UniProtKB/TrEMBL annotation:
NCBIfam families: ssl1. A zinc finger (C4-type) spans 365-382. It comes from Cyanidium caldarium. Residues 20-31 have a biased composition (Low complexity). SUPFAM superfamilies: Cysteine-rich domain (SSF57889), vWA-like (SSF53300). Residues 1-31, 306-327 are annotated as: Disordered. This is General transcription factor IIH subunit. PROSITE patterns: VWFA, ZINC_FINGER_C2H2_1. Residues 1-10 have a biased composition (Acidic residues). The keyword Flavoprotein does not apply. It is found in: Nucleus. The lineage of its organism: Eukaryota, Rhodophyta, Bangiophyceae, Cyanidiales, Cyanidiaceae. GO terms for molecular function: zinc ion binding. GO terms for biological process: DNA-templated transcription; nucleotide-excision repair; regulation of transcription by RNA polymerase II.
Amino acid sequence: MDSSDDDVLLSEEAYRRQQQRAGGRSAPAARIVSAASATAGSRPDYAWERRYERTWDVIQVDDVSGALVRTDQLQQQRQRHAQLEQWYREVWQRAAVGGVGGGGGHRGLIRYLVLVLDTSAAMRPGGQRSSAASRAFYDLKPNRWAALFSAARQLVRDYFDENAISQLALVALRDGLAHVLSDMSSSPRPHMEALQALEKGSGDGGGAASLQNGLEVARRLHAAVPRFGTREVLLLYGALSTCDPGDIHQTVEECAADGIRISIVGLAAEMHILRTACEKTGGVYRVPLHTEHFRELVRRHRVPPAGRIGRQRPGERNASATAKGVADDSTQVTLVCMGFPPRVARDAPQVAIDSRRAQRVGYACPRCRQWLADVPGTCILCGLTLTHAPQLARSYHHLFPAPRYVECAEAPAADGPSRSQPATDIWECFGCRRHLRRNRALCLQCTGRCGQRYCVECDQHVHQLLHNCPGCEALFASDTG
């Protein structure tokens, strides 16, 4: 083994102390990385070597503000921006690909999603399993069971925050069966309560998971979905097998014929049947690398998937999609009748038709005048879709995303956004109005109309929460006002 100065893990003084403690005996040669070579970018190969890294060397005191800053802060910001760019390419630019085959790209604003959770023995904390299966149970931190429900709760919150007029249902797989936890609803309350009850009821057993039964139950839940809605199934699957009572391939073909898009996030190794189900229905299949990657893969499904608009007659499926065995997401352009009921307070409590509870404050359906407890949703009596104008606007931004932000070659001066000004050490973010250093903060420029500069925090806030560029909106307001 090479024992040169470039391959030294400990300092010479520490090595001499180790020799003295060993009583003068020659210790086995150790592969070491000196401080100079570690700073040059060489990373240790083993976990026990990483604890000797001098992590405090990357922390310094800022000369201007006096705060503690990292010297590699700019590199970390570039990584965060690269992750956002990758998500932008995978999610938003897929709409352009969806236009292949004679149609234009589109996204469904009214979604009907069935979230299927694998709660079999492969996911439960109890139960008898082999040593390899026991180790696989802790591949996600703190374990698969906790990571599954944490990601599911976050998805429910993000789903209704980004898709206010959509609906969701929950299905659990265990003991070879599929159990409906909550029916289609546009309120997150019943889904959160069902997840909380299921997580507390974790125990031994769980049995095997059945992919076919889960898809059959999802088909039954999608049977009453109107034609203008998108039918989606998201499966969080952790088992390495499926116990099906019939032909699973026939069930996948029926899902494709019904226009149901199946997407799967597999917690274990890739399975051929899961890959086939996603490819035939136009969904995506991903296997996470670690816990944070798993949460990110699940969270990506909060955005409506891209599809294509076809030109077939009502009731006629796309011939090319039928020949290829792919789910037909060609949606006939349809006018959807919606109601916008105001929130009113009555003198006496009245039983709401949806919650079956008496309350004074609620909503009256504009068509049948039935008393409702919550909006958005669908009137149980007349079937009218009820929503608010702000909720409809929150779903509308999926069709027109905010313009991309790209890294600037040179940062501008702090007193203006003009691109002809000379570069200085300090630049100002248009979003948060902070003055930042070029060597400490990444400068991003809007590719839209305004061309303003933004920091990484504002970039993530605009593209993940706000969905509107402040600079472009300010120019639009000045033009119209």
